[in-house]
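Summary for the steering committee. The consortium agreed at its last meeting that each partner would contribute one worked example illustrating the joint modelling workflow. Our contribution is presented below. We chose a case with several input lines so that the handling of multiple components could be demonstrated. No manual editing was applied between input and output; the record is shown as generated.
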Amino acid sequence: MSNVVHSKVTHLYESGETGGKREAILNAALELFTERGFHGTAMPLVAELAGVGAGTIYRYFASKEALVNVLYQYWNEFQLVTITRDVPCDIPLRDQFHIYWQRLVDFAKDYPTAFAFLELHYHAPYLDEKSRAIEERGHNALVGFFEECLRQKIAREASAEILASIVWGAYVGLVRASRNGRFEITPEVIEQSENSCWDAIRR
Amino acid sequence: MSNVVHSKVTHLYESGETGGKREAILNAALELFTERGFHGTAMPLVAELAGVGAGTIYRYFASKEALVNVLYQYWNEFQLVTITRDVPCDIPLRDQFHIYWQRLVDFAKDYPTAFAFLELHYHAPYLDEKSRAIEERGHNALVGFFEECLRQKIAREASAEILASIVWGAYVGLVRASRNGRFEITPEVIEQSENSCWDAIRR
DNA sequence: GGTAGAAGAATGAACGTTCATTCCGCGCCT
DNA sequence: AGGCGCGGAATGAACGTTCATTCTTCTACC
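What follows is the complete predicted structure of the assembly.
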């Protein structure tokens, strides 16, 4: 059913190559948790979509909560690395922002389910300490950028936390609307929204 | 427990004054659905927080789904009316935006739980047609404003849908961050964010 | 190279628990 | 005294999880 997704991101999950069952479970859980929510998804359903027995899941994950936390940590970490890696810090902040925005939109385009999953489970009560920690790391990276904008007097006078929440919120709003079929995210839309967001925070 | 909230919004729910049980159930459900999610909230727990018997809920609501839909419709409608009512259309759009932004922030401040509830259940699969319809009405109202901005050549060249998703996203991001304790929403913050968002969409 | 046997991975029926919902006896108001 | 609204124990379905069993894979020895 979701074999395309499987083959696409299989290599991404750390694994000792046990026949791909762990990956199949993770991909099935990602899909179902995203569409139906954590409490709305029954474990046997995950097993069915993954093409494994119900008991098999518990050979790889201690519990349903452990499963959702592994998913959350994996994708949050992956998102953070994908967006922030190798961004030159010796170019103007406006140009850095261009790179970041492009990568944000690309991530949502390349991994739409993962993006929706992360959004849906943001700050969920069943996330453990490790999930919260990586959540916090991402937030700090975002805020850090705007602090640098403030230091260089490029951003308007507002706390970095506020600028971060506005830009991140706009990003989420944009992707969510496109996911709901409001519009397609074309290169033109990416450029327009990037300029919008930059104008929202620049001095 | 949440008596303050009860006494505050009791009058808002349409009711034939049955002793306030319907309102108590609605308020308890609002609180619990918001904090634990729809599937994560057990009906007996709702009954306990509402201070009624478990069976009593079913005297007022046909099912758990009916309950969440009544809540969603009520608060979405209330939000829409609160934000859009009596806004003069003969003043500059920039001034209209000022009013809208103030009301949006006020709504989130006055009804933080309702705001979080609406955000959490946006586009949830268990929402019925009527809930979707009022969801759509709100969206159209928002988009309509930006269409007028485009007509008057005040907004930058981008589709109204895109401008709407960015501004609404920024609003949600701002409120969510303050809800997570990142900052307080002071009059200064409201003004800064309003200017931010206007600059994001203006020509 | 082929076969026997061990080891561990996978299974899905079964378990105890918890859920949404029902139902019936109690108590309050007239 | 009667009737209506209420509470909370009862109910059956569905949940997350377990475990006895089967299936697969790999090794060792002839």
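The mean pLDDT of chain A is 92. Chain A touches chain B at residues 35-40, 123-125, 156-159, 161-174, 176-178, 180, 182-183, 189, 192-193, 195-197, 199-202 (CB under 8 Å).
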